[in-house]
Design brief:
The protein is mainly beta. It has 3 helices and 20 strands. The protein has helices spanning 2-28, 68-74, 212-218, and strands at residues 65-66, 81-87, 91-98, 108-109, 114-120, 123-127, 133-135, 139-143, 149-153, 159-166, 171-172, 209-211, 225-229, 232-240, 259-265, 267-272, 278-281, 285-288, 294-299, 305-312. It is globular and about 60 Å long.
């Protein structure tokens, strides 16, 4: 009987201790509905910012405005051609036309992605490790680093496309498809070597392609960055046309890099320091050099949709504004 009473008392004490512990824990724990404070970004940095004076002059082939019509006129009657458009310390970009049945040499780039925007015809894209696909007008293509690829014009009309690479990149030619060394180019001589590091790939933010006209415009979807990687930012910005702001609205400039835009849809109005304000059309390429005040806005009839593909080397690049603007364009 004493053993039973002792056991019963022990159980009661243990139960009371457990209840007390749970009560104490409940009191010390935050309510289930309590959440962390919302993140508030710090105020922008106010600093003495370097501004080139006088600003750096334009250097060919760079121009404030490369009209697509002018590019086509330069190469009228040619089946295959390349037109340099952008040359700066970070990026290079060219227009290319490939005649029906034409195919590029199989190659890869060592350390950076390749971005391509198709504007006419049909381009069969073959990347190692991916199913081949056919790209048409408005397709944005993303080729990872160290992934061999070829482009083939498969339609009845020539394939017209805009290609972007990092300025320091030199093409690699796989020996299995190019058994003989390519010719020496601009002081570079090709040697057969092993390249380590493995191929680049894709993730939730980087896909092989985007059919912009179908996946964004027709679907009324929200656009965004197509590539946001080291040394390359390809960002789709879409909006409706509004009245052009007055010249006193300077926009911003970049301390460390140039920026340019591919007009994908509608019209884009650009004001660049030292240049007249102009309105570009779809297919045109517009640019602003490092350190130049610039302001891009959606142009054309008020309410018309427009898209500019902003391209620069830094996904988190800094923007310098006047203090009066409060950091807004």
């Amino acid at each position: 009987m004493n053993i039973i009473r002792l056991w019963t008392a022990s159980c009661a004490i243990a139960l009371l201790s457990s209840v007390a512990l749970q009560a104490a824990t409940a009191q010390s724990a935050p309510p289930a509905t309590e959440s962390r404070p919302k993140y508030t970004p710090p105020p922008p940095l106010v600093a003495w910012t370097p501004k080139k004076t006088p600003y750096t002059p334009w250097r060919e082939p760079n121009r404030p405005w490369w009209k697509l019509s002018d590019v086509l006129a330069l190469h009228k009657g040619k089946a295959n051609w390349t037109q340099p458009v952008i040359r700066n310390k970070d990026l290079v970009a060219d227009w290319h036309q490939l005649a029906p049945g034409g195919k590029t040499q199989r190659l890869a780039y060592s350390d950076n992605r390749t971005a391509i925007i198709v504007w006419d015809g049909e381009l069969r894209v073959t990347m190692e490790g991916q199913e081949p696909f056919t790209a048409r007008k408005g397709f944005e293509i993303n080729v990872p680093l160290r992934v061999p690829f070829t482009l083939e014009s498969t339609g009845a009309a020539p394939a017209l496309y805009f290609q972007l690479n990092q300025a320091s990149d030199m093409p690699l030619y796989p020996v299995d498809s190019t058994p003989q060394p390519p010719a020496k180019v601009n002081g570079w001589e090709y040697e057969q070597r092993i390249v380590t590091g493995g191929p680049g790939g894709f993730d939730d933010k980087h896909q092989p392609y985007l059919d912009y006209f179908k996946d964004v415009i027709a679907a009324d979807a929200r656009p965004g960055a197509f590539i946001a990687d080291q040394h390359m930012f390809v960002n789709n910005i879409r909006g409706r046309a509004t009245p052009t702001p007055p010249p006193s609205v300077l926009g911003h400039f970049h301390v460390g890099y140039d920026e340019f835009w591919f007009v994908m849809e509608g019209n884009i109005t650009l004001q660049v320091e030292g240049q007249p304000v102009f309105t570009a059309a779809a297919g045109d390429v517009i640019s602003a050099p490092q350190g130049h005040w610039h302001r891009a806005s959606f142009g054309g009839p008020v309410g018309q949709w427009g898209t500019r593909v902003a391209i620069n080397p830094y996904p988190r690049g800094g923007h310098v504004y006047t203090q009066e603007s409060q950091g807004r364009q």
